[in-house]
Amino acid sequence: MAQIRHLFFVCGEASGDLHAGTLAKKILEIDHGIRISGVGGDILRAAGANIFSDIKDLGVMGLFDVLRKLPRFLALKDLVINKIREEKPDAVILVDFSGFNLRLAKEINRSVPVIYYVSPQVWASRPGRIKTIKDYVDRMVVLFKFEEEFYERRGVRAAFTGHPLLDIVKPSLEKDEFMRRFDLHANKTTLVLLPGSRKQEVERILPVMLESCRHIIKGVKNAQLVIAKSSQVELDAYDRIVEEKNIDLTIIEGKTYDCLNIADFCLVASGTATLETAIMQKPMAVIYRMNPLNYFLYRPQVKLPYIGMVNIVAGKKIVPEFIQFQAKPKEISREVLRILGDAAERERIKKDLALVKSQLGEKGAAMRAAKVILDFLSPI
């Protein structure tokens, strides 16, 4: 069996850093002698990786944001390629961040084994990327069972290992203790807002959420609002919007799962947060807005009827979605008030979310992924 000495990770956003860090930690539990380096953030660094380029402010929303940051991406690609040539790792592990990572895979051009963890959403849009994956990626390690089936039908080697969020999503404090710590009240209806992990998302989505809440609290007695703040976005971005809307709320950083634990209803930006909310089995509405020009460019490429991962995994609409021009505060508030006022509907949503959770596999996903990768690289 060949000994693995060095693995090179590349991720680019907060969720990718989370998955990369969790995977790296499990790899090192299996073999603490492996060296890990690459592009990442605080979580991958804390797992034991040597980070030579930090992902802070690397995330983008749409074509125009990509163009604005293009010089940085080109410089990063050159840096990564040079590092790979110099250090000659045993494999490169690409984590999500498909716009950059698929181009990087082409540049690597099979000079080093390439493993892709957290699949690009080729099943939803731009299916032409499958050819790039087939030509330049040696192994796909995917989070959803339907992805494994999708790739196998197209001749791409893929392994479904389950979703690592099943191990990650859990509150750190008892509900009563958390509420006391942040001066929240158990007898109030708690609305939790998750407006995204990028500054651009917060700037476009949080105002819609707050205006929706302004209408919602008129129809709910004793409501309290909580923003689960992303550590990737500076507090000023939230403060400016909250001050402009002049609405009373509590901003809590680094305690997303504790915030979800106390929620009666959640307003959630489309993305990983919808699955986190589903795992906690909390009723939600999915809200998303982007630059209108970006939306007109990308929407025709999306072949699925839903945008929220929770609805995509379910294969049906189990929670309401308010996307782009449909993200109107009065319509959002009307739907939220309808659900809050209908106990049977809330129970139906929770049961459907439980089914979504069951489709994410079993706990231990990151360890299974680590074993699949190490076994692939060091076959007996």
Structural account:
It is a single chain. 49% of the residues lie in helices and 16% in strands. The termini are close together. With 380 residues, it is of the alpha/beta class. It has 18 helices and 13 strands. The strands form two sheets. The protein has a seven-stranded parallel β-sheet with strand order 3-2-1-4-5-6-7, with helices on both faces. A six-stranded parallel β-sheet has the order 10-9-8-11-12-13, sandwiched between helices. α5 links the parallel β4 and β5. The chain has helices spanning 14-30, 42-46, 62-68, 70-87, 98-108, 129-136, 145-153, 165-168, 175-181, 199-219, 235-245, 256-261, 272-279, 292-298, 309-314, 329-340, 343-358, 365-377; strands spanning 6-10, 35-40, 50-54, 91-95, 114-117, 139-142, 158-160, 189-194, 223-229, 250-253, 265-269, 284-288, 321-323. α1 packs across α18, α5 crosses α6 and α10 crosses α16. The model has no long low-confidence stretch (mean pLDDT 92). It folds into two domains: 6-164 and 364-377, Glycogen Phosphorylase B (Rossmann fold), CATH 3.40.50; 175-358, 3-Layer(aba) Sandwich (Rossmann fold).
Features:
380 residues, alpha/beta, Rossmann fold, 2 domains, seven-stranded parallel beta sheet
Chain-wise SSE layout:
Layout (H helix, E strand, L loop, with lengths): L5 E5 L3 H17 L4 E6 L1 H5 L3 E5 L7 H7 L1 H18 L3 E5 L2 H11 L5 E4 L11 H8 L2 E4 L2 H9 L4 E3 L4 H4 L6 H7 L7 E6 L4 H21 L3 E7 L5 H11 L4 E4 L2 H6 L3 E5 L2 H8 L4 E5 L3 H7 L10 H6 L6 E3 L5 H12 L2 H16 L6 H13 L3
Parallel strand pairs: 1-2, 1-4, 2-3, 4-5, 5-6, 6-7, 8-9, 8-11, 9-10, 11-12, 12-13
Helix pairs in contact: 1-18, 4-5, 5-6, 10-11, 10-16
